[in-house]
């Protein structure tokens, strides 16, 4: 989807189809969300097959839906591609589990992923990012969006305990989960693509755990940690290990690449912002937050209303599905003045909801923030300027806002 | 893996080389019915037929994992994950099992 919106346009809220994939691959959803926040902060849509869902688009409503599990449960599924089918992994998979069980499982994992805990990875990540950027610095046309799909695996592979030979396949599988209709990832049908990728990823983690158990190997990796935690006094079941390992792989792989590509695209279009960050590297943490807000790679998450609930000036009936559009919330002018302006010095950019809100706030956020900071430090240090070298292409997905191609050409910076 | 004489015998005692691409024989119709029943068991919907669609029946990967495990136990054939979901119906999965037995 376009991150810099085109002109405002008339929107017929009654016939609007938010699941129209063309809207995201070649279209421009921001002017639509602008109208929804203004005129229909609670929107109802019925799909041709009879499934229905409500949408919230304002910042405060998105925060409430994602943050309050008593009103809006995660236990029937949280990803809109599964709308209408209760999550088979509810109560086991961490993202589809409400507190208190969710809190019990999350706490020991979180200890490994705090800002303080991930700091010890900084030098390794910087070396990885330098290797990643080297071909771009050599002056070749560099398809950043395509290459960036591998970046999280390069960074998190050692942390997760995954051997390098498996990364490419895992990246392909996680992309299939999040964009099953994109022609780069589609296998057969959408349903087959989702089932194949879920199945292969679950098998991968299960086989990984079985092998580790058999050879008694111990290491400091996150997947190994999953096998040793005892939330509520008992170890996780094999099914929980497989599902939570799957969830961690997914979270690591599918969003960060699109924040990298979308933020670089914003900078390519705004050379003055690029120059500003280059002249003053202390602006880079702000650039990262603005990039997270701007790209909102996790475009939405879904919840189900527990009871009838009043929100956005209307009522969602008990058991109704509600999609919280994070991409829209992050352009809400009541929180982010002049929201469609990309400004690396924006005050309060860090209030964005790109990592979600509440109990399910992204567990990898500190690692993602640090990786993005290092990426932009190295990019700005290594490249005098960056230009577009071909047509960008956007991901065909209403769940992940992303790019599949962003060819760029960099001018190497000759540091004095 | 070479196909053994025993496999040929199981396929109805035919003397010629097995032809896995051929349409359903009597043996594979029975196998398709058996797979349909296995699906019914794991998808919680009795009365699944050989031509029913896995996803239309509400099939997902958690059911698929269990079904592929059962096929390995009952028939000694490890189905490819991709082939299983792209096959879509018990009849086509039965063909995959026969191909697997024949080592093709």
UniProtKB/TrEMBL annotation, chain A:
Swiss-Prot/TrEMBL keywords: Heme, Iron, Metal-binding, Monooxygenase, Oxidoreductase
PROSITE patterns xref list: CYTOCHROME_P450
Species assigned in the record: Streptomyces erythrogriseus
Annotated protein name in UniProt: Cytochrome P450
CDD domains documented for this protein: CYP142-like
Domain of life where this protein originates: Bacteria
Matches recorded under Pfam families: p450 (PF00067)
Family membership: Belongs to the cytochrome P450 family.
From TrEMBL, chain B:
Matching InterPro entries: ACP-like_sf (IPR036736), PP-bd_ACP (IPR009081), Ppantetheine_attach_site (IPR006162)
Region of interest (Disordered), residue spans: 1-28
Keyword list, A-Z: Phosphopantetheine, Phosphoprotein
Segments forming domain Carrier: 26-101
Matches recorded under Gene3D superfamilies: ACP-like
Protein name: Carrier domain-containing protein
């Amino acid at each position: 989807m376009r991150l810099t919106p085109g002109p405002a346009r008339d929107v017929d809220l009654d016939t609007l189809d938010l699941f129209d994939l063309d809207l995201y691959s070649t279209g421009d959803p921001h002017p639509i969300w602008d109208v929804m926040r203004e005129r229909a902060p609670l929107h109802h849509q019925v799909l041709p097959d009879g499934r229905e869902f409500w949408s919230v688009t304002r910042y405060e409503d998105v925060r409430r839906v994602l943050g309050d599990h008593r009103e809006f449960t995660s236990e029937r599924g949280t990803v809109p591609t599964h709308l209408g089918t209760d999550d088979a992994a509810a109560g086991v998979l961490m993202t589809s589990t409400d507190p208190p069980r969710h809190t019990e499982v999350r706490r020991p994992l979180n200890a490994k992923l705090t800002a303080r805990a991930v700091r010890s990875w900084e030098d390794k990540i910087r070396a990885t990012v330098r290797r990643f950027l080297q071909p771009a610095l050599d002056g070749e046309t560099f398809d950043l969006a395509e290459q960036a799909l591998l970046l999280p695996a390069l960074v998190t592979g050692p942390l997760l305990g995954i051997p390098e030979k498996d990364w490419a396949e895992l990246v392909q599988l996680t992309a299939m989960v999040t964009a099953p209709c994109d022609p780069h990832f589609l296998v057969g049908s959408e349903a087959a693509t989702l089932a194949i990728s879920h199945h292969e990823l679950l098998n991968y983690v299960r086989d990984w755990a079985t092998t580790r158990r058999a050879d008694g190997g111990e290491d400091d990796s996150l997947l190994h940690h999953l096998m040793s935690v005892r939330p509520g006094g008992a170890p996780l079941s094999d099914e929980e290990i497989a599902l939570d390992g799957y969830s961690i792989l997914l979270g690591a792989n599918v969003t960060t690449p699109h924040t990298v590509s979308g933020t670089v695209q914003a900078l390519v279009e705004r050379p003055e912002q690029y120059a500003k960050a280059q002249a003053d590297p202390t602006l880079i943490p702000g650039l990262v937050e603005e990039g997270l807000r701007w790209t909102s790679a996790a475009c939405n998450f879904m919840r189900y209303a527990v009871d009838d609930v009043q929100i956005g000036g209307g009522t969602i009936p008990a058991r109704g599905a509600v999609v919280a559009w994070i991409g829209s919330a992050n352009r809400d002018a009541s929180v982010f003045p002049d929201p469609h302006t990309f400004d690396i010095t924006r005050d309060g950019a860090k209030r964005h909801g790109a990592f979600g809100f509440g109990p399910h706030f992204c567990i990898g956020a500190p690692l993602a923030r640090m990786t993005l900071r290092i990426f932009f430090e190295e990019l700005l240090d290594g490249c005098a300027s960056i230009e577009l070298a071909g047509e960008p292409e956007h991901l065909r997905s209403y769940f992940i806002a992303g790019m599949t191609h962003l060819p760029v050409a960099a001018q190497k910076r000759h540091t004095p | 893996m070479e196909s053994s004489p025993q496999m040929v015998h199981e396929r109805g005692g035919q003397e010629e080389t097995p032809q896995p691409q051929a349409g359903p024989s009597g043996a594979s119709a029975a196998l398709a019915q058996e797979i349909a029943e296995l699906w019914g068991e794991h998808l919680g919907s009795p009365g699944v037929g050989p031509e029913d669609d896995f996803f239309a029946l509400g099939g997902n990967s958690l059911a698929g994992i269990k079904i592929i495990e059962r096929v390995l136990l009952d028939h000694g054939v490890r189905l490819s994950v991709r082939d299983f979901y792209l096959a879509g119906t018990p009849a086509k999965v039965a063909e995959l099992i026969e191909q697997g037995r024949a080592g093709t």
